[in-house]
Amino acid sequence: MRTVLHIGAPRAWPKPLGPVPWPLVPLGNRPLLEYWFELSVDLGALEVLLVLDEGAEQIESYAGDGSQWGLHIQYGFHREGGAPLAFLQRSPDLWRGGVLFLHGPLFPRRLPDFVRAPPDTGFFWHGESNGNCCALCRDAASVEVLLAEAAPDVGTRRSFAELGLDPVPVESLRDFFALNLRLAGGEISRYLAPGYGAADGSCVGYNVVLPPSADVAPSVILGNDCTVGLLASVGPCAVVGNHVRIGRQAQLSQCVVMSDTYVGEQVEIREKIASGNRLIDPEDGVVLELEDTWLLARMPPAAAPWDAYRAAAGWSVALVLLCLQAIPFAVLYGLIRLCGCGRLATQRSYSRRGTVRKLPVFRSAEGHRRNLLVRLFYAGSLDLTPRLFGAVRGRWRLCGHEPLRAPEDQALRDELKVYFPAVFSYATARGGADDPAVAAMEARYYAEHRGILEDVRILRDTLWGRLASGLQKRG
Amino acid sequence: MAATFQVRDGVGVVAVNGALTSVGVDAFREQFVAWWQSVPDIRNVVIDLSGVDFLDSAGLGVLVALLKRVLERGGDMKIAGLQKRVRMVFEITRAFKVFDIFDTAAEACHACA
């Protein structure tokens, strides 16, 4: 028996939650897709085919070869325009041994009488043949019925309810929120628990700091690496993702807090979804983006240890560079201002925490780009001195991403898993024109390939490249 | 951010328009204080936020500061006309426990009378 999960069709509703495709939206702190894996394992369908399109890279990166669940996962790609069952109809021989089929965002909700060993015959169907649907056929005859009928006849199909399953559509933030609260309300006990399961129906992940003064009212689902502040209150019916910090005296109830979120002191979240610095009302989808980092903020993902070493080394180098550049900067900038050749302006840019900061940017006056003072200024990388000051203050890294503009680069900011806005970047090293496509490619590359050697290369290319360029022009 | 100040049936009504954020709170506070000193007979104030589409913690802070001034005169301050996003800020910060909140300025004025 095989499982075919046709999950490529894109959906817009998860966008406010962050850059996550709908099969990976967390329900009770586990991705929706994982519940289908769990059902496949229960049904003995260990051969799984994922049909992907949007978010394919993320989903493949998450699911891998399936060995973590005891599955063997293969991948196919979604074709636009075909009916859901067309995929199965193209290679009917593959499914003779039975098939569990899913098309679209349905959650395999288990009822209290869920049957782990379903009957060997029968054609179980839920949904619409042209929309979200799922089917289970365990014998060749049922598979033939499934493949032969574009819209399976009511007379031949049986309901999933007979198996103790109630497939629930997840087509909006409201559905997503309601399902999470249902799971937090106790239904999570019908599935593999994400973390340690308690008798009161709560689940607590690994590495959770929970002081005695914090009040956890059952039932809640707390993810891994969470910190709950003193006198904070969590629950009832709260789903808290991984790597969440809850400030002291904060109150969370009837809510979903997505991973990597900071909830400030004395903040109250009730009947809402919090995702980074976004507060979302699931009823009407209204999104509030807060710039007050002490209320709600996106926490940088837990950094690898070498990121911390890199930051420490970068800060030391920034301090040395700032000492070297301070006097030349003061002299040359003073002369440039006197001559009216340029000035420092500010640009709204995203900080690492997702808030907006003013980034100092040097702008040469029109017609003065080839001015000797301006060329010297660039050749010595003195236009970056104010940013170096920010780096010493801890606002920017020494080497990393070119700070993304707010709000123009919001989509890219959401997409990047790690973001280190910095003084020196590929953009400063290349010194080329601002091409958004190139900038996006560089940002993604740095997120994946960052390291001390990469930082040294950026620093060398920027300092030496600019100096060489300046000297060449002078010559 | 722009604010208009008027007196209706013995109640001061302050209508604010635009975003009440750190950028405009100082100007708003100064305008309010100047107006407040010019109407010594007024004790109760309604802040009509129906024209405010965004408010941050600085905006909330100035409302709390104004409430303190009004209470010092022995009056009361009520908030009216919260838009959805502004209401969400009030909820997350628990500010709705500090202020009396009404749907419209007329209802708030009626409550003050």
Describe it for me?
The complex is a heterodimer of chains A (475) and B (113). Chain A is an alpha/beta fold. Chain A has 3 domains: 2-170, Spore Coat Polysaccharide Biosynthesis Protein SpsA, Chain A, CATH 3.90.550; 187-298, UDP N-Acetylglucosamine Acyltransferase, domain 1 (3 Solenoid); 305-474, no CATH class. Helices cover 31% and strands 24% of the residues of chain A. Chain A contains 12 helices and 30 strands. An 8-stranded mixed β-sheet of chain A has the order 11-12-14-17-20-23-24-25, covered by helices on one side. In chain A, strands 5-4-1-6-9-8 form a 6-stranded mixed β-sheet, sandwiched between helices. A 4-stranded parallel β-sheet of chain A has the order 13-16-19-22, with no helix packed on it. In chain A, helix 7 (372-379) runs antiparallel to helix 12. The mean pLDDT of chain A is 89. By secondary structure, chain B is of the alpha/beta class. Chain B has one domain (2-112): STAS domain (Transcription Regulator spoIIAA). Helices cover 42% and strands 31% of the residues of chain B. Chain B has helices at 25-38, 57-72, 84-92, 105-112; strands at 2-8, 11-20, 45-55, 77-80, 100-102. In chain B, strands 1-2-3-4-5 form a 5-stranded mixed β-sheet, sandwiched between helices. Chain B is globular and about 35 Å long. The mean pLDDT of chain B is 93. The chains are: A alpha/beta (475), B alpha/beta (113). Chains A and B meet through strand 22 of A and helix 3 of B.
